[in-house]
Amino acid sequence: MKRFCSWGGGKDSYLAWVRASEADSPLPLLTMVVSGNDSTHQSYGEVVQRQAMALEIPLVSESVSWESYEDRFKDTVGELGADFGVFGTIDVEEHRSWVKSTCSTLDVTPKFPLWGEDPVDLYYEILDRGWEVRIVKLDATRIDERWLGEPLDTDFLEFLLDNSVHPMGEHGEYQTLVLDGPGFNRRVPVEITGSSSLGDYRIAQLDVGEVGENR
Length: 215
Description:
Rossmann fold, putative n-type atp pyrophosphatase, domain 2, 5-stranded parallel beta sheet, Diphthami_syn_dom, MJ0570-related uncharacterized domain-containing protein
């Protein structure tokens, strides 16, 4: 049976991948990198490649624009000939509906291992698993800039809850990258060297190194 995990490089897709892989063998990754003219997009693509190398699993990576996203997603999944895909959506019905509708045209069964679960419980599960997860993008109108580049921890969760922000950032309030955790044979070498602005968002500038030897 051919399958894939829709991969964003952050905590949600990683948790979905871990749960699905615990029930079966590790899933190949599919990532759609929205292209841009700045170094942020290039660095993100490099991190995703390093993650796949550290996990030692296949990666299919496509560079797309927002306008071409859906068509390229359909083309790529169709070329994979997949029977089902795993997605990290938690509680945004609009996104789940889009995935289900898109997959139905390809005869692909979508699976949502995190759907409907308490986001606070999911946050604590990530902490309990001991992953290294860094905040690499945030909405500065909702989240103080001092959190950019910081790891997920209980202090950040307390800040989110105190300010009525979704604990898992499901509505785009913040985004993360996973640098180490179960399945990683070595840490993804990323250092945060600064930040830049894009509208209301602050984005971490990343220095991506070469993946070293296995542990």
